[in-house]
Every structure is written in structure tokens, then in C-alpha cells.
Design a protein that fits this description.
Blueprint (H helix, E strand, L loop, with lengths): L1 H17 L20 H16 L8 E2 L7 E3 H13 L3 H14 L9 E2 L18 H19 L14 H15 L1 E2 L3 E2 L18 H10 L4 H17 L40 E2 L6 H12 L2 H14 L8 E2 L10 E2 L9 E2 L5 H31 L25 H13 L6 H6 L9 E7 L3 E3 L5 E19 L6 E15 L12 E9 L6 E9 L4 E2 L2 E5 L13 E6 L12 E6 L2 E9 L10 E7 L12 E9 L4 E8 L8 E8 L4 E6 L4 E2 L14 E7 L5 E13 L29 E5 L2 E5 L8 E6 L4 E6 L5 E4 L9 E9 L2 E9 L2
Parallel strand pairs: 11-15
Antiparallel strand pairs: 1-2, 2-3, 4-5, 6-7, 8-9, 10-12, 12-13, 12-14, 14-15, 16-17, 17-28, 18-21, 19-20, 20-28, 21-27, 22-25, 22-28, 23-24, 23-27, 24-26, 29-30, 30-33, 31-32, 31-34, 34-35
Length: 823
């Protein structure tokens, strides 16, 4: 009771400090920034958009004066207008733009994507003006969440739209519609409701940073948003322009470009179908802003990797432009006509404030302020005239060529780039989760490492630290000689705690040797660095079984598969909730504790909820062919029957197989033979373990039921050699002194004419030498001569740099020679 009382007093003491923030500009920004202060430039260009794109029309929405249907308004503009209004701390215009969207676009589920100058669905614009554009929906939703937080913290005034919704209420409505209609296969964002997705996606619609906020705003749907993040990065990484930091305007979910009909002469298709989907053009260019946001807000390494590619490709601000997906500039002769009855040919190549603004975000995400500074200087010197209220050429003989200046899309994208590189585009949600954002973040206990070297089979490598308040922190471990061998951990708490067992994020063995440790936290300028030697990774075999998870790392990330997550029926209208879902200590062991409260929510059947091991990967799923038995140690404080389900596709397809177990307060070990699982919907469909996506522990009981499921461990038994190879043997810290190859008294390896020459003791002559890489994969087999010698042509086997192990087996004797290849 004392602790609870102190927490309440602490909050009461902090609350006056928080209310000192009278405007959004009072909130702290921990983002990197270039040297120029963009405050006046951003405010003036926002005023210009209000003057040209909002005030001349009666709807309150953002209109496009030079579009293919001059004066029309699109839901994209509603979202963009709300972004600029919020970061300009202009609640009056924020309400005006949003309320315009509410009055003329909102249909009860979503915002119809286009209306004419009077807010009507004009037949002259064509038959397809209804339906959502998913990028607009997510942009509007994130701004409503931010506005809701500003109201909650007394910075903005409460507001209700003409449709009767508050900021937070409408945000939840939008997110529900996105979840139910705009996500394909649980992983890919559709361009709109119920269209695209399986056939094509628009990568620049992906907003992973926003999805992380959505996951925290509605935690009961966290798995949906996190899967959407993973699906988004899967598409980006598979596309043919990835190595250059490019994506096509449109592509398939597997990353391949798709043939689109090219716009004909005089076509009003604008840029959407340009170059048959082979161009990094006006849709695609926004990818840099969206991924830079994810990296700068959340430190996402996949975003950083893409932005590194982009910055390496563009290199200098002079090169900022649109490109073909192979990296060549758009054809010089390519032009387009934008508006109806317009004869002005606009070039598709464009070195402008638009392209500079977007490429500047790639530079900031990749190289920080130093890399972004030249882009900032050129953006201001070439495309902004001091005192003006728009972005455009700063020097032009007859004034700015506004005929070529769109005065809509280009203005917004230049503003987005400038706001991000100047540190203004903060994560309002995260800042306001801090009960005292005005107090600087400090270490209470600086991070300590458990040792300088470790064998994960004897215990995890741990890092522990304590902040003076919750903070978003990141720990990265990167191999000194192989930058591709790395792993990162992150959290948002006052305690920094890492437990590493020498495995990568997907459970595979990571390369042995020296790792640089980097510890950083949002709000701290200091980065702590250290070093550790990985001698041996954790062996996931337990006798003849394979450990899926024993929760020793105290997190919800298994050794195999994607994550432990929760599945409820709320997508269908119910409101089942999971109030507690965490790893806890019980009788000296780590358990995952999952609680549930079932709420029918109008369903005609008993509501359900489930604890789920999600095993999807970037390729869709783990191949569990050969799995014979699932072994689970579990309990429940209240006796309960649990349906155990093997999910191969999704519940909508009824393609799942079921067995059951009965939990009691006493811990029990259950063995579930795969052969006993039967189709839940009946029939004799065979179970395909190469397409398993999840194992689900489901309860389905009357409305109002509450309970818990506790799991201590899950193991697999069967023929799973294709899934896992044990790690190589122990590699001592002394191997750090090895430059290229190691040698012992009887056994040695040395480099001779681009080959590794092995020399083993004479009694091993004629035996087979197996060459393993650090993952345990056999990369080659050689036969020793009678005197115990052989040479290995590692170049012929295309063996990369790294640690390898030469193993010779003789009866019960196993001789292992570790050596390092450096190419």
C-alpha cells in the first residue's frame, strides 16, 4: 500500500509540470536537426496553403487548384492539411479541415477519396470517387490520435465534428475500418478498402511508424499492426529497387513490378500509371519520408538499411529527382498534361523542392544532420525566397514559374521534408506518454554488462540499467568483422534489461567472435559503447527435442517463429480483452501469463480468445515438415479445457486443425501428437506442416468468463534437422588474437595460395573433415590424406568472411579446429 500511495503522490507532483506546456511548441524534441531554424519558413508556407488551397472554397477542405479536375478535394489533402495544422499548432484550421472531411467525405466507415470544388460526388469526374485511399485514412487517424492527446493534456480544447465525433472516437472508427477492409493476408496494406492487396500495393502508402502508435492506442489489436509493419518491410525489401533505396509507384506484394497501362497522349491519368509501374515517381517518392519517420521515431533498423541504400545512391542534393526503378533518370522527353483542357506540357523529371524535401529525409535517416545539411542548404537557397509563403524557385528571371509549380502536392512534400530535418516532426503520442516531458532523461544506474565473454549454454549475456523515467532505448550488438551479423533490442521503460543467448532475431545461430555493444536512448545525447566476446550460442536441442521457447529471455519473442501474441474475437464485433499478457517468475521458472475476459459483443455464439505462437516469417511461415509431437508445460489457476489449434491459413478459410488439453492449477506436461489433430470444421483435408502459420491455445466460454493460461515451455519432437542445426563448439576468448587462421600443437590451419591448408594429427589420416559455418550448416566435406593433411578452396565454395569450424570424427572422439576466413 505504501508503494501505491507514493506512485499517486508522485503523479500529483508531476502533473503541474506537464500542464506548463501551453502549446505544441513547448513539447521537447529529441530528434536530430540541421543547423537552420525552419520555424518561420514552415509557418509562412502553411499560411500560403491556407490562402490558396483552403480559404477560396466553402468546404473547409484542402483543394487542388491545378489537378486533373481543377478545384477538387481529395482525402489525401484532408490528411496533409491536418498534419500541417497540428504541427503549426493551429487548432482552428485543424478542426476546419477535418470537419470539412467529415461533412463531405465521411460515409460512416471511411472518407470517400474525392469530391469536387463544392464537396459533391460529381459524375463529370468519373464513376470511382467513392471508397477510401488507405494512406489518407492512416494520416487522418494518426493526427486525430495526436489531437486527442493534446486535448487530454490540456494543450488543445475539446472539439466535436458536425458528424458528432470527438478526435479519439473517430480515430477508433478509422482504425477499425482499416483493420477490417484495408489489410490483405493480415500483412499487406491495400491501396483502398477491398481492392488491391493480393494483386498490387502502393509501397509509399506504408506508414510503419504510425502503425506502432496505432498498436499502442488500441493494444488489443497490437498483433494486427505489428504484422502490417512486417508485411510492409517485406514488400520493400523484395522490390527490385531496394539496393538503390527506390521502390516503384505500384508493385505486387512479392515486390515485383506490375504492368500498368501507360497513359496515352493527352491522358488525364496523371502520374499514377506512368511508366507501367517501373518508375520511382510521385507516389513512390514519399517512401523516404515515411521510413525516415520510422527510424527517427523508433530506431527501426530495416528503415535505416533502406535509407542507407537511398543516401548512398543519391549522394548529393544535386541528384535529387525522380528515377526509373533501375536507377536511371526518367526519360528527358517524357512530359504530361495535368488538367482537363490544359495544353501545358510538364516535364516528368523534376529537381525541385518536392524531390529535395523527400531525398533530404533519406539523408537525415541515413547519416544524420551532417548528411542532411547540404540538402537543407540547397532546399533553402534554390527553392525558397525569404518572406514568401510558398516553395518554389528562389531565383527566376520573371519570377517563380508557378505554371509548373503544382501548388498542392509539391508544397506539402517540401513541408514534410523541411519539418523532419529540422526536428519539428515529433512523435506527439510518445512525448505525451511521458508524465514529465520537461525533465531531462538521465541514468540512475549506468548500464552494466555481465562479462567480457560468455557461453550462452551457461547463462545469458545480460545488460542492466536504470533511467530516472521511462525512455525508449535501443541496444545494438554488431560483429566487428561482419556488419551483417548483428542483433538489436529495444524497449520503452525506465529499466533497460537485455538477455542475449547468442541467437539472431529469428532464432538462428549468429556468428561467433567480437561484438561491439552500443546503448542509446531517446533524450540522451550520450551513446554508451562496450565490447563482448560470444564464445558459443545457446544449443536449442534438449535431448532429442527442440526448444521453441522457455521464456528464459523474459520476453514474448520465441527462439523460433515471430512472437507470442493474443488473438480475440473483437474483429467480429466482440470486445474480449486481454488485461495481462507478460512473462513472470513462478516457483523459480519463467512463464508466460495470459489473462482474458470474454465479452460477447452481440455475437450469436460464445466469445473466444487465444494465446498464440505466431510462426510466420518473411516467406510466409516456418516449414515444420517432420514435426511429430508438440510438448507443452502449462497450467491454469482455474481448471479449464483448452482447444489447441494448428493454423495453416486463417480462420476465415476454416483451415485449422484441433486437439485439446485440460489445464489445472498443477503444472502438467502435455504431449500432443500431430497425427491426432483433426480438421475443426470436419472433413479429411490433410494437414500441411510446411504451411503452418500459428499454434493457438483457445478458450471459448460464455459471455463474461474470465481466466488465465500459463505456459512454461514448448518443445517440438520429430525430424527437424532442416529447421535447426546445433551451434559449433566453444570458441575461447583467446581466438580474438587470431588474425586469419588458428593453429594448435597437433592441428592447424593456414593460408596457402588462396586455400586453407589443414594439418591434423597422424591418427586421423584418411578421415573426413566437415567444414561448418557458424550456423552449424555443413558447407563442404573433405578427405584427409594418410598423413592427416588436406587443402580447402573456400573461394570455389563461395565461402564469405567469418568464423568456420573444421570437424573430424573418429569413433567417440571429436576434434574441432576453429578458424577464420577474411576476404
Amino acid at each position: 500500500m505504501v508503494k501505491r500511495g507514493f506512485s499517486k503522490l508522485f503523479f500529483l507532483l508531476l502533473f503541474p509540470l506537464l500542464t506548463q506546456a501551453q502549446s505544441l511548441s513547448d513539447l521537447p524534441s529529441h530528434l536530430p536537426r540541421v543547423s537552420h531554424d525552419y520555424e518561420e519558413v514552415l509557418q509562412r508556407t502553411w499560411e500560403g496553403i491556407k490562402k490558396r488551397n483552403i480559404d477560396p472554397w466553402t468546404t473547409g477542405m484542402v483543394h487542388r487548384p491545378k489537378s486533373e479536375f481543377p478545384g477538387d478535394a481529395v482525402s489525401e489533402g484532408v490528411g496533409y492539411g491536418m498534419i500541417l495544422a497540428l504541427y503549426s499548432d493551429d487548432q482552428a484550421y485543424f478542426n476546419k479541415v477535418w470537419n470539412g472531411g467529415e461533412r463531405f467525405m465521411w460515409d460512416g466507415r471511411l472518407y470517400n477519396w474525392r469530391r469536387d470544388s463544392e464537396g459533391k460526388n460529381n459524375d463529370a469526374m468519373g464513376p470511382h470517387n467513392d471508397g477510401a485511399a488507405s494512406d489518407a485514412e492512416e494520416d487522418i487517424a494518426i493526427m486525430l490520435i495526436f489531437a486527442d492527446q493534446l486535448v487530454e493534456h490540456g494543450i488543445w480544447e475539446p472539439f466535436t465534428s458536425d458528424s458528432g465525433a470527438t478526435y479519439g472516437e473517430r480515430a477508433r472508427d478509422i482504425l477499425r475500418t482499416i483493420r477490417e477492409t484495408m489489410i490483405a493476408d493480415g500483412r499487406y496494406l491495400r491501396p483502398g478498402n477491398f481492392w488491391g492487396g493480393e494483386d498490387f500495393v502502393n509501397p509509399a502508402y506504408f506508414a510503419p511508424a504510425f502503425y506502432r502508435v496505432f498498436a499502442e492506442f488500441e493494444p488489443e489489436h497490437r498483433n494486427t499492426w505489428m504484422s502490417l509493419i512486417d508485411g510492409s518491410y517485406d514488400v520493400i525489401e523484395r522490390n527490385p529497387g531496394y539496393a538503390l533505396g527506390l521502390v516503384p509507384d505500384w508493385c505486387r506484394p512479392d515486390g515485383d513490378t506490375i504492368p500498368l497501362p501507360p497513359p496515352g497522349e493527352g491522358s488525364i491519368l496523371g502520374y499514377n500509371a506512368y511508366l507501367g509501374g517501373q518508375g520511382f515517381y510521385k507516389d513512390a517518392v514519399r517512401i523516404h519520408w515515411r521510413l525516415a519517420t520510422d527510424y527517427l521515431w523508433y530506431g527501426e533498423p530495416r528503415a535505416k538499411a533502406f535509407l542507407d541504400n537511398a543516401y548512398a545512391f543519391v549522394d548529393t542534393p544535386e541528384k535529387a529527382n525522380f528515377f526509373q526503378i533501375d536507377g536511371s533518370l526518367l526519360p528527358e522527353e517524357d512530359t504530361f498534361i495535368l488538367a482537363n483542357n490544359d495544353t501545358l506540357q510538364r516535364p516528368r523529371r523534376e529537381h525541385s523542392h518536392l524531390t529535395l524535401g523527400m531525398w533530404a529525409t533519406a539523408a537525415m535517416g541515413s547519416g544524420g544532420p551532417e548528411a542532411a545539411e547540404p540538402f537543407s542548404e540547397r532546399l533553402l537557397e534554390e527553392f525558397y525566397t525569404p518572406g514568401e509563403d510558398f516553395w518554389g524557385k528562389a531565383s527566376c528571371p520573371n519570377g517563380e514559374d508557378t505554371l509548373h509549380n503544382e501548388m498542392y502536392f509539391d508544397q506539402f512534400l517540401a513541408w514534410f521534408g523541411a519539418s523532419l530535418i529540422s526536428g519539428k516532426f515529433i512523435n506527439v503520442w510518445e512525448v505525451l506518454q511521458d508524465p514529465d516531458p520537461t525533465t531531462p532523461l538521465e541514468w540512475v544506474d549506468r548500464p552494466t554488462l555481465s562479462g567480457r565473454s560468455f557461453d550462452a549454454n551457461e547463462g545469458a549475456f545480460t545488460i542492466q540499467g536504470l533511467f530516472n523515467k521511462p525512455a525508449r532505448w535501443t541496444v545494438e550488438l554488431k560483429h566487428r568483422e561482419n556488419e551483417n551479423s548483428s542483433i538489436s533490442f529495444s524497449g520503452n521503460s525506465d529499466t533497460l534489461s537485455v538477455n542475449w543467448y547468442g541467437l539472431s532475431n529469428d532464432g538462428s545461430v549468429i556468428e561467433y567472435g567480437d561484438y561491439d555493444v552500443t546503448i542509446s536512448a531517446r533524450g540522451l545525447s550520450e551513446t554508451i559503447t562496450d565490447r563482448v566476446w560470444l564464445s558459443r550460442a545457446l544449443d536449442l536441442r534438449d535431448g532429442e527435442r527442440l526448444i521453441v521457447d522457455d521464456f528464459a529471455a523474459r520476453d514474448l519473442v520465441p527462439y523460433f517463429g515471430r512472437e507470442w501474441t493474443s488473438y480475440t474475437d473483437s474483429y467480429a464485433g466482440g470486445a474480449s480483452v486481454v488485461p495481462e499478457f507478460e512473462v513472470v517468475e513462478h516457483e523459480g521458472d519463467s512463464w508466460v501469463r495470459w489473462a482474458y475476459t470474454l465479452d460477447q459483443g452481440g455475437l450469436h455464439f460464445y466469445p473466444y480468445a487465444a494465446l498464440e505462437w505466431n510462426c510466420t516469417t518473411a516467406d510466409g511461415n516456418l516449414d515444420l515438415t517432420g514435426l511429430d509431437t508438440i510438448i507443452v508445460v502449462a497450467r491454469s489457476p482455474q481448471p479449464i479445457g483448452v482447444s489447441v489449434q494448428l493454423i495453416t491459413l486463417g480462420i476465415d478459410n476454416h483451415n485449422f486443425y484441433e486437439d485439446s488439453l485440460y489445464l489445472t492449477p498443477e503444472s502438467q506436461k502435455f504431449k500432443l501428437p500431430v497425427s491426432q489433430f483433426t480438421p475443426r470444421q470436419g472433413g479429411d483435408r490433410p494437414l500441411s506442416l510446411d504451411s503452418l502459420t500459428a499454434i493457438r491455445f483457445q478458450v471459448q466460454k460464455p459471455d463474461g468468463s474470465e481466466g488465465e493460461i500459463w505456459i512454461e515451455s514448448m518443445h517440438f519432437a520429430g525430424d527437424l534437422d532442416h529447421l535447426y542445426s546445433p551451434p559449433p563448439e566453444y570458441l575461447p576468448l583467446s581466438a580474438r588474437r587470431t588474425v586469419a587462421f588458428t593453429s594448435g600443437h597437433k592441428n592447424s590451419a593456414r593460408l596457402i595460395n588462396d586455400r586453407v591448408a589443414f594439418s591434423f594429427s597422424g591418427e586421423l589420416g584418411g578421415k573426413t573433415v566437415s567444414i561448418f559455418d557458424v550456423s552449424g550448416r555443413v558447407v563442404d566435406r573433405l578427405t584427409l590424406s594418410r598423413d592427416g593433411m588436406v587443402k580447402w578452396d573456400f573461394r570455389r565454395r563461395n565461402a564469405g568472411s567469418g568464423m568456420y569450424f573444421a570437424v573430424v570424427q573418429q569413433g567417440g572422439k571429436r576434434v574441432t579446429l576453429p578458424f577464420r576466413v577474411m576476404r
